[in-house]
Protein 1
Amino acid sequence: MDFLVDCRSLKKSYGRRPVLHDFSLQLERGRIIGLLGPNGSGKTTFIKILAGILSKNSGEIKISGRQIGIESKKIVSYLPERTYFSPSMKVKDTIKFFEDFYKDFKRERAEQMLSGLDISLNSKIKELSKGTREKVQLVLVMSREAELYLLDEPMGGVDPAARDYILKTILTNYNENASVIISTHLISDVEKVLDDVVFIKEGNVVLHQSVDEIRRENGMSVDALFREVFAC
Amino acid sequence: MKWKFDENTPIYLQIVEQIKTQIATGQLKAGDKLPAVRELAVEAGVNPNTMQKALSQLEREGLLYSVRTSGRFVAGLEEQSEKLQNELASQYMESFLDSMNSLGYTAQEAVSVLQAHVNKK
């Protein structure tokens, strides 16, 4: 089977502290996957390895058959936890920035979404609220025709109404051959849009199942199951 | 369309139920065309695969049919909405009896208190 993400026995430590132990995960195309786990479980580390900004210690990892590197970055669109644009940039400069960097970037799509959000292309990043900055960054990331979208806490700083808008933005923009990985703590907000969930605990995958199966087998939501599995 | 989802059952089943209710109550009529899967999914705020799964099930049950290239429609059987109404009504009655049963009423007792309740109104 041709997996979009094929990751086997991945290991990663920071100094002597292991973060991912023998981490294996295969993800298909055309799915929206929730990456769920408590703080410090290794979610962000895994996403950063996929994005190519951290290197693994050992193990195998491929995206669409490609090793992590320049070739994988062409097909991966990554939304980091924190926005990274310079405060003095205008929104239209950030569009130019993405256009220069990524061949698959669709300017019209970005402009259309920004106007739907009433964000002016002439606003400076430093004049925008934290939530609005996050929206700009998400719009840019979702305006690429990528095969894999990595969204690390995409709704951390925004209000519940804007969360719905963000989820709709995600639903409207990925295509059938692409997958979206969303790491989040706000499970009940994202649950309806997910195909599958992956629970990570202390650097290992403890569950990888479809949301339908979880609800059918346990008679409870993913949010409720998460609280049970990760009860302190 | 208004969508509302609970926490505990698979979402595609809830979509199936809600579309059935719309057909039973005549909000969706024979021959009505449904919006595209992606559009419906975005409207309901659910995953497109989930919406697809629900619509396929409704097709298998004969409530919807698709015409290649032109879309998906509500099937035109006359007796269909009546059949659905009966189906939904028996589900509601079952769930009423279950709830009453958990309070300690037998089916007979449940019927007579329901009758008394209706008379009082």
Protein 2
Amino acid sequence: MKDFNYSAPKTVKEAISLLGSLQGEVKVLCGGQSMLVLMKQGMLAPEHIVDIKGISELDYIRFSEEKGLTIGALATHGAVEKSPIVKEKYPVLAEMEDNLAVVQTRTWGTIGGNVCHGDPAADPPAVFIALSSKYKLMGKKERIVNAEDFYKDLLEVDLEHGELLVEVQVPPMPANSGVAQEKLMVQKGDMGIVGAAAFVTVNPSTGICEDARIVLTNVASIPFRAKGSEKVLIGKKIDEKLLEEAGQIASEEVDPPADTHGSEEYRRDMARVFLKRATAKALQRAQQKN
Amino acid sequence: MEEIKNKYSILGKRIPRVDAPLKVQGQAKYAADYEMAGMLWGKIKRAPYAHAIIKSIDTSKAEMLPGVKGIVTGKDFGGFKWGWQGYTRDETPLAVDRVKYMYEGVAAVAAIDKDIAEEACDLIDVEYEELPAVFDPFEAMKEGAPLLHPERKTNILVEYHWDFGNVDKAFDESYLVMEETFQTPKSAKGYLEPPSVLAWWEHDTLHYVGAKGSPYMIWRILGRAFDLPLSKVRVISPIIGCDFGGTKNDGHALDFSACLLAKKTGRPVKIVYSQWEELTTCLRRHSMAVRCKMGMTRDGYLTGLYTNCVADGGAYARMSVVSMYLANGFNTVPYKLENFRTDTWCVYTNNPIAAAMRGHGRYHTQYAMDGVMDMMAKKLGIDPLELRIKNSIPNPKPGETYYTVNQVRIGSCGVKECLEKSGELFGWDGYKKENKVDGPIARGAGVSASGFLSGARLTGHNSCSAVVRINEDGAVNVLTGATDVGMGSDTAMCMIAAEVLGLDMSDMEIKRVDTAYTYPDPGSYGSRVTIYAGEATMHAAEEAKQQILSAAAKEMDVAPDELDIKNRRIFMKSDETRFMPWLQAVRLACYQGNGNVIVGKGVSRRGVKPAVQAFEKGIGDTGTNYGFAAQINEVEVDLETGVARCTERSSMGDDCGFPLNPTIVETQGIGGSYHQGIACGLYEEFIMENGNTLNPNFVDYKRPRVYEAPFPKFHHAITQDPFGPYGVKECSEATTSTGAPAVISAIYDATGVMIKNMPATPEKIWRALKEKKAQENK
């Protein structure tokens, strides 16, 4: 690993002013679970590391009926996994964490670090996008961006020089809605070879799907919003045939990579399978709430 | 079997391992934990080509880097070549004029810290001329293929052609003959401890602390490499964090480089391989194509077997000569078989070197044979467990032996019991009738049985010696030349000495090899340690015991053979109320003896005579005895995604003769070989592209954990082998061989598709299912 300058601010204010003043390549380190791997492989060699693990004001998970869930950038995966309020109000996040890497990674890795890494195979961005979440960024001024708009390209996110992601904001779950996440793992905790997060709302009297937000992982350079599939589902009563149609559309629309875990052809078919599985589960949950 | 269990006070009991407290408290010192004052860090410079001529190496820029203390290249070893046997000496410590596999070492640097050593490696300029390379063994066998070792005129590293009985006639007379080809993957040893070495020169003697399961191998090799008498090579063994064969048996670039850099700089040099170096350049299990032809009667009795094996040996020979023997040497167990023929080749390619691994050789042919057997069982309409039971070699009666057609001598064989008990523990009867499809999930079960040698005596010196020292305070040191690489042999040795001496485990202490003081021993391979070192330790303890008894007898005015020891008492066998406390007898013996210490010496000579016709003709008894195992596994397959996983339903039967410590045997079977076995069936595979390893990390290279492989139920078949000390035989190489075939055959049962190129990854199963559907729709 190449040498770098290291600083560890204790407050958000201090961090922002430091980030604004540093010249050259700067990387923010939090849990470091993804970034250190890249640094050890020599794929990343920043001049400056700003370690925000000590900014305790960003370590929180809060909930209110009006605002929904707010997760501080420093909250660890383990904290989300075990949070009683998360389990009660957004069980999908706890389920997601249970299958996210291994306990050591969850204990040290943070939500903020994960969503800023910009890995299209990661689970939290997909689930947050399905839940219509927003990210709060602090720099010279504060910015709120849709989670969906935050992802620009492979490992590239909408963070300007001097900016820090401080919070993930998940809105309250609408009535008659359900959300689920599924992924293709060879082993428990794997990055999904393909994954899907699905959110649906269903009219309780007609049974018609009123809204659907479906996001697939590891099938494009960013989390993939399956808009074609959503379109087929919205305004209709979802049944097996319709799900298959939505899945087929997804398998055609995605642009998956090929690697040692799966070919492009296999991933396309898995996009179909997992879109169906996640959506069916979300639908079942939306109906159960009625 | 109760009388065997109650025969001993310590043996056969679930005694805690002697190394467990050290390991779980983080106190165990491994090679990488050793540091010395003035120590330098070494790093290997590696070539980015799979096959290239080294035109020049310029180290001048690296030498100028502050903190760099020494650099060596391949030429500095003075033309030294080494190998497993004289005729396989084809490898230099670092490449001299030609690199033959990707990332082969070409130079080494010693610097004041790791980062500087790494930076210096980047500053070494090497000019290469890339050569055509060959990565497929079938291509490498062809006329005109690029030659790895031009002086040999061929890439064929070794070939064997054996013929027993009359295979053609057997096939002609068979009711059913089937032939299929199966391919095993290249796979990692997967030890957690990285290869590590700390070397220094002191008083003209080379000192070496390294992670080696066979420390006396590197002792000899270093003696030759540095032209030293063996009295001036001191190899000291730390605790070893697993081995499984290969890199930790003999040497690698780091071993020689650290020693030479230490000599050149006059300072201790330490090198620890990164996981990346381990997984790209260290020794891996062979990949092998096995074409297997099998004949059976209408009732499912085996009539004949032919195997045609082609293995990828990688760039250098290493132990491939042995691997290829072992691939076919025991195809005549665990089933009765009168007609067997094989044609077998191992071929040099520009891939990283292949070498021994647990279940050595056997695991490849086992997979192919089980696969064909299951396909035949299905055709004949015979239950695959029943088919295996009816073909099993019976357990010879006491005093009798069974000889296979290739003269393997079996004194005990519990394979039938292993199969039957595995079936009972699994609940095989009635399993067929269960509903095994639920939505996209289909369940199925598979069975495999195997046999493997213990106490390999293939070539050369295989005897083993031990010393048992009783100190004046009654505390006992056990010393052998053997090495516990995690399998629990240190505990076994202490148990044997304690049993013989009538003492407690708390009286026992075992230290590891120091070649300046311990007896030479070939090391930990070939499932030989408990058989040989165990017998040596037993004799050494007996000799020490005799000295104690003699001293006590003199004092008690009786004959030594009237006495025995139990619970720290030397007592008269005819009248247990007449006794002398242990400590009093020890003091008497120590002070009367020479040097205030009792020294008992013991040796096992069972491995001294190798089976000379083994390699060339496949004839002979290359083991001291043979362990057997059976395994039944259930898997569930997701028919949409192709993901197959083991369920909680599995069972294993193991015949290790007599489990000296049932807990250790179970952890070797359940926790060790079970995971390693099913791993090859479902997960493990190096993905290669032109000699480059694409998944050299344990995220992309999959190994199962407890989530993926819940522990099986376990049965001990106790057969009391006549040729092992206390009746013991190997445990865990046979059980390593059964894992992959059992899960592959379970997938066959669940889906009807036989995966012939394991591991059965999701995409492979998905493709096979798609193909099957297309066939059915035709």
